[in-house]
Amino acid sequence: MAEAYIVEALRTPGGRRKGALSGCHPADLGADILNALVSRTGIDPNAIEDVIMGCVTKAGEQGFNIGRNAVLASTLPETVPAVTVDRQCGSSQQALHFAAQAVMSGAQDVVIAAGVESMTRVPMFADMTVLASAGIGEGPVSPRIRERFGVSEFSQFTGAEMIAAKHGFDRETLDRFALESHRRAAAATESGAFERELVPVATAQGLHAHDEGIRFDASLDAIGGVEPLIGGGVVTAANASQICDGASGVLVVGERALRTHGLTPLARVVDMTVTAGDPVIMLEEPINTTRRVLDKAGMTLGQIDLFEVNEAFAPIPLAWLKELGADPAKTNVNGGAIALGHPLGASGTKLVATLIHALRARGQRYGLVAMCEGGGTSNATVLEVL
Question: Known catalytic residues?
């Protein structure tokens, strides 16, 4: 089978809720990434055969196929098609998988996989509450689902608490993990480690060029003073991912496109998979997905140089580390979503961009991205830096 190569991987700096990017329409944020992918690679924009855009909350400004609207807001020709996909938090990682599959099958040669989420302008769950507030329908969890799983709804907050209890993580363990995320992100920012992957965004207040959510003065006392999200629980807003506005994307091509357009690959997609498990505990599936993708790739955990495991809530990467026996020093080396933010549909290719550039900066070869997702699914991707 043909190979799929990533020739550029970029992201906007994260914007805090009601922060630096709150004045930006999400279609424009997505467009900034599309423009940057084209300009930094020098590819003819007419060569792009599709844009696959991940987005979770597809309502309001993110409705009506945000992928297509991002193309129309960009400098790409109107002849470039686009589609929006939803694999919850793994949406743009799934976009990468779809793009790689298209290239590897020979169906297409040049595809952009991207993601966008303005959690300020389109609040989380807005797509599920608008009809309910009007008294229309029962919401996404049908009576059959409720009966099958014995729940009235699925809650990621409950799932995170269940994982913490199952694996024996107390509040201090979660808070210490959160503090380390901020420390690593602060160190990466101060050293310039993110500069290669960032696409600064022009705003009314000026150029937004650095991740806004990092707490450079974070302390265990401050993190420990935040109330639990669920009464009596251990998961808090301080040891969970930050609400975030942002966009990200990668340009995926095949071997013919490398030759035709004179492109230099940054990385190769070694293997990829998606799995599904218990939708109630919901967020534990990256453990199974990692095992599956390594098995498919014929690789061991020890062959992977760096890992990006999304920090949706501190118990998720901690459980992943515990069950797999992975090295914490190789995991989320530049911090994670607790410090940098989790712009939902943009997080997949955001982590891919960070991973690729971290590997290249260290002269290392293999990386793995694993993502927990609403509904109990998970994507995992193994990449080789070239």
Answer: 89, 342, 372
